[in-house]
Design brief:
Isochorismatase-like_sf; hydrolase; Isochorismatase-like_dom; 5 helices; globular; Rossmann fold; alpha/beta; 6-stranded parallel beta sheet
């Protein structure tokens, strides 16, 4: 089956990646930025659509913490979808934009693993998208119960193979050709 892929870059805002006065930076931020930038570059070279999601609750628009990280700036023709919920699809036109592009496979990267990345992966499958979550392309901060690396490892494990009806999530490292879905080989 021929698939049409898009790269979805979630909440890579300066205040999340770099942290703020009251919040730590995400785990291994330098490595995360390099991985996501390399994937964005690969997608652009192959004319794969890149869509960004930006959380309006991070900080006020116009503040540095609200802005998409300078290392990961969208190109002028790449959509930036503003969201209020952890779910990138809720109350936004993300699904409509993806449908207009004929997308049926999403490669997902971004922040934070247990909130917005997890929500987007799960919701995407219920909307009919196969999802490739990039193993080393998402990050978070630790909390009172778990260190950041434990949260990331847990989500890489529990989301791999998660299905809702037919579409499902596969977790793959960025070094693989994540833009070519392998879901059909498991069906």
């Amino acid at each position: 089956m021929n698939r049409t892929t898009a790269l979805l870059v979630i909440d890579v805002q300066t205040g999340i990646v770099e942290g703020t006065s009251d919040q730590q930076p995400v785990y291994q931020k330098e490595s995360l930025l390099q991985t996501i930038q390399a994937l964005i570059d690969r997608a652009r070279r192959r004319s794969i659509p890149v869509l960004y999601v930006q959380d309006v609750d991070v900080k006020a628009a116009g503040e540095e913490a609200f802005a998409i990280h300078p290392a990961l700036q969208p190109a002028p023709d790449e959509p930036v979808i503003l969201k209020k919920a952890t779910d990138s699809f809720h109350g936004t036109d993300l699904h409509d934009q993806l449908q207009a592009l004929g997308i049926d496979h999403l490669v997902i990267v971004g922040c934070k693993t247990e909130y917005c990345v997890d929500s987007a992966c799960r919701k995407a499958t219920t909307l009919g998208y196969d999802v490739t979550l990039v193993h080393d392309g998402h990050s978070t901060t630790g909390n009172a119960a778990l260190r950041a690396e434990q949260i990331i490892a847990h989500h890489n494990t529990c989301l791999h193979g998660l299905s809702n009806l037919d579409p499902f999530i596969i977790v793959r490292p960025a070094k693989e050709d994540v833009f070519v879905p392998i879901h059909d080989s498991y069906r």
